[in-house]
Amino acid sequence: FTELESDQIARFQEYLRIHTAHPSPDYAGAASFLLPYAASLGLHTTTLHLTPCKTKPLLLLTWPGSDPSLPSVLLNSHIDSVPAEPEKWAHPPFAAHRDPATGRIYARGAQDDKCLPIQYLEAIRGLKAAGFAPTRTLHISLVPDEEIGGVDGFEKFVESEEFRALNIGFMLDEGQASPTDVFRVFYADRLVWRLIVKAAGSPGHGSRMFDGAAVDNLMDCVEAIAGFREAQFRMVKAGKRGPGEVVSVNPVYMKAGIPSPTVRVFGSQFACLSLDSMVKLVAVAKDRLMQGFVMNMQPSEAEVGFDLRLPPTEDIEQIKWRVKEEWAPAHKNLTYELIRKGPVTDVAGRPIFTATNESNPWWSVFEQAITSAGGKLSKPEILSSTTDSRFVRQLGIPALGFSPMTNTPILLHDNNEFLEDKVFLRGIKVYEHLIRALSCLQG
Ligand SMILES: CSCC[C@H](NC=O)C(=O)O
Ligand SMILES: [Zn+2]
Ligand SMILES: [Zn+2]
Q1: Is the ipTM of this complex over 0.90?
Q2: Atom 9 of ligand 1 has which residue's CA nearest to it?
Q3: How many domains would you assign to the chain?
Q4: By alpha-carbon position, which residue is closest to atom 3 of ligand 1?
């Protein structure tokens, strides 16, 4: 690596070491890293507080263009990350360990999406060093709370006067890794719903066989949904549909059982016990702690939660019918809640997606920039998960999801999330091409 490249990798690692994971992301720490970094490159920096408590800053970095009357270009990235289970990782999730043999940098956020701000900023460094000056103004937004729905983040941002004043013409936001050497790009996100099904039923002794127990009723629901899920998944496995082109309905939690009180043993009690009964008591306590539930009672209530996602053009009415008639019918003692998360149509009442044809000049410029960077682009896809792009697309502003990570397994929200150093560095070059092209698109 050149000295510059080593520095770029080090800056990426430094950012990854900031604990930005929920439930208590260190936004202040991230801001004290990112703001002086951007200022050192000559960018204007602003911090917006969209919540009264001021604990969720939204950072805006600006490189003014020579023609500020033209709509600007926005590069977005969320600051927060999902939690990690450190004991299940090969390397600590906030150490940003670089494996010298493979060049893999392991960290929560390595792919999702803490590579982006560093790549944006280092691309700007490169462009400035090459004497490039943008025509359109370029903004970078670094936003809180994407991982928890963006209610105090991008959703408030798009409603703000500050956002309107930016006059955004086009946005690039995160995408997903590509396991092949072809870059992936996303023109839409699926819609997010939550489905919660509750079952009631007859309670009884754990040994009795009877009809209509709550868990039994809930299992009928789970089986019905599993059948639907399998049919959708089959289309993906057969290559007939992309992962964003089907309805997914995945169980994410299950709740049932009568909690058992934990056995507490005090020192004084221990004192009068024989060694034998002490060992037995510890075994009982351990057993109860592990299970946490009474083992010989069939509970009268049970619950399951599903993460439900629909392609933007899918008809929710059909799903509503299925839930009512097939998945959670009242005659099986099942009740449900179907909760919408985020917008389902744009301001004009149309499905939320960005055009990827001649009608969208930004699309052609994007495509050409990837080619000029020596990259190949796969057919534009619908993202199976959800990003802040939906808030921008909802306003009718074009936005594409893109993370320049080729030959990389998809590890967002997974254990041992990593990004290879060379892939990260190549991404900087790709953004140099993208920024050059997008910021000079003629009005
Ligand atoms: C309710 S919006 C949730 C947003 C979240 N984004 C990334 O994982 C997601 O679950 O896709
Ligand atoms: Zn993300
Ligand atoms: Zn995420």
Answers
A1: yes
A2: 386
A3: 2
A4: 149
